[in-house]
Specification:
Elements lengths: L2 H21 L8 H6 L1 H8 L5 H6 L7 E2 L12 H15 L14 H30 L5 H11 L2 H6 L6 H17 L7 H17 L8 H9 L7 H14 L1 H11 L18 H6 L5 H4 L2 H14 L3 H18 L19 H16 L5 H22 L12 H9 L1 H14 L5 H26 L3 H24 L13 E2 L3 H10 L5
Parallel strand pairs: 1-2
Helix pairs in contact: 5-6, 5-10, 6-7, 6-9, 7-18, 7-19, 9-10, 10-12, 10-23, 11-17, 13-23, 16-17, 16-18, 17-18, 18-19, 19-21
Length: 517
């Protein structure tokens, strides 16, 4: 390793360690955090999939509902729990060193490890973009700037550091992995193992959030752009089978809970009658223009890339367009403890590539337009960073906010930064034991991830696919084992348990009466 690379690696490791020390926390945001997390203690401690006990211990703030098969209903997919499972296993192994006193795996000791896992996944998403940019653009000049701008200008920073107990950091990681793996394997020979691997990764990405399935357009675009002699139907079929296999834990869970492989408990959230794309883009209450304007710049960059005929730019432009359109159809896009349009965290790598294209286009402009074009995304990121500072010092995320209030906060950018630093200095920090454990385990996990990535980059796609497939197979085996140990849905005295079919009405009522609508 060269001295420059060693210095860069040491700097990144120090930055990650500082983030661990400053932002490690035991917080969770209800109900989403509990919904994603509950699978882990239920499987690890109770050995079943009856989530009712976990929902009660986690103070889930939604009514209890029963599925047709007698399980507590949930609309949260299992993919996040799958990605968090190594962190959860580590927390259980070292639970004796913490204050894990409840004996059920739901207390703060476990949440600290889970949140650290999200921080690591977000860091890996950045690393994957840098690798992917090198594959796509050769020298990848400006990639680090694009990554930093996308990080500070999108909701990813907020969900990686302040609210890591949700699916947004893990979603950004899985989508980045799909894009980076497609590019890293694009120059290899024809191999069905490659398409199986990419399909498995796309399937697991969809396990985290269903809309992540859009990123399957990237490997499909790579398949479609190839000469007819290399564009084999068998490869596409293997890819589709890989996607189904990767998503099989959720399909199996749908069958276990609701007696239907294709059941989608959160389908109620999407409908034409809720269409509000103009609010998604322009509303001061979590809309793109006021909260994450850098996405407009990234979108323009992808348009420039697509116009030049770049297949990746076209695929990412289609993904961003469809994702925003789907968000516009969601009844609850603004509801809850949301920093901006939180669903766009999964679009992070698309935004980063869009900003990279923008930076490159700006370099060929003549003065005075070149410096202006380069400054625009930076100013957008600074704007969003100001809201990030205010999120812990005076900005109530669950209440409507007017455009004038956001402008007033931005005028006090420096005071907001000072308040944020004061909050950061005064908040509780992990003890020396927790910090050492989190740092050591994160380093071990990062090393394991780098070894796996070496398999992908070096063309050893069969073992890479075998590892991914083994993880999915183990998840399915655990679900079937837990289903075999099914326990009845316990009901507390005086507690009403509604049928699962009535639960969507509860969520819709909550969303439609939200003052930000």
């Amino acid at each position: 390793m060269s001295r420059a690379r060693a210095l860069r690696a040491a700097t990144l490791a120090a930055a990650f360690g500082l983030a661990t020390f400053l932002f490690s926390n035991t917080s969770a945001v209800l109900p989403d955090s509990a919904g994603y997390f509950a699978y882990l203690p239920s499987l690890a401690f109770d050995g079943d999939l009856q989530l009712a006990d976990e929902f009660r211990r986690l103070n889930m703030n939604i009514p209890m509902a029963a599925t047709v098969n007698g399980y507590a209903a949930t609309q949260w997919p299992i993919g996040n729990a799958l990605l968090w499972s190594p962190a959860y296993a580590a927390a259980r192994i070292f639970a004796g060193l913490g204050a894990a006193a409840d004996g059920h795996g739901c207390d703060g000791w476990y949440w600290r490890f889970i949140n650290q896992g999200t921080l690591l996944y977000a860091a890996l998403a950045l690393a994957l973009f840098l690798r992917a940019a090198r594959e796509a653009e050769g020298a990848a000049q400006g990639a680090a700037r694009a990554a930093a701008t996308a990080l500070c200008g999108t909701p990813l920073l907020f969900y990686a550091l302040l609210v890591p107990s949700t699916s947004h950091g893990t979603s950004a990681f899985m989508n980045a992995l799909v894009v980076a793996a497609t590019l890293a394997t694009a120059r290899g020979g024809r191999s069905r193992a490659r398409w199986l691997l990419l399909g498995l990764l796309c399937g697991v990405a969809a396990l985290v959030r269903p809309q992540n399935a859009l990123f399957s357009l990237v490997p499909l675009a790579d398949w479609a752009r190839r000469p007819a002699t290399e564009r084999r139907i068998e490869d596409a079929a293997v890819f589709v089978l890989g996607c189904a296999a990767g998503a099989s834990p959720q399909l199996l869970l749908n069958w276990i809970f609701n007696a239907s492989f294709l059941d989608q408990p959160s389908a109620f959230n999407v409908g034409l009658r809720y269409f509000a794309l103009h609010k998604i883009l322009l509303s001061p209450y979590h809309g793109v223009l006021f909260w994450t304007p850098v996405l407009f710049v990234a979108y323009a960059g992808l348009c420039l890339s697509a116009r030049k005929g770049d297949w990746l730019g076209r695929a990412l432009l289609a993904i961003m367009s469809i994702d925003l359109l789907v968000d516009g159809l969601c009844v609850s896009w603004w509801e809850g403890h949301s920093f901006g349009l939180r669903q766009t965290s999964g679009l992070w790598i698309a935004a980063a590539f869009g900003l990279l294209a923008w930076h490159r286009a700006a370099r060929v402009l003549e003065k005075p337009w070149a410096p202006v074009a380069r400054a625009v995304p930076v100013l957008c990121a600074v704007w969003t960073l100001g809201l990030f500072f205010r999120a812990v010092s005076g900005l109530e995320l669950e209440l409507p906010v007017r455009a004038g209030e956001i402008l007033a906060m931005e005028r006090g950018w420096l005071s907001g930064a000072a308040d944020f630093l004061a909050w950061l200095w005064g908040r509780s920090k992990p003890g020396i034991v927790s910090f050492a454990l989190l740092s050591a385990l994160s380093a071990a996990a990062a090393y394991a991830a780098s070894r796996y990535w070496r398999l992908v980059e070096s063309g050893r796609w069969r073992p890479a696919a075998a590892i991914a497939g083994s993880v999915v197979l183990a998840a399915n085996a655990a679900l079937l084992w837990a289903h075999g140990r099914k326990t009845p849905l316990a009901v507390n005295p005086g507690e009403r348990v509604m049928p699962a079919a009535e639960l969507p009405r509860f969520f819709l009522e909550q969303a439609l009466k939200n003052p930000g609508r």
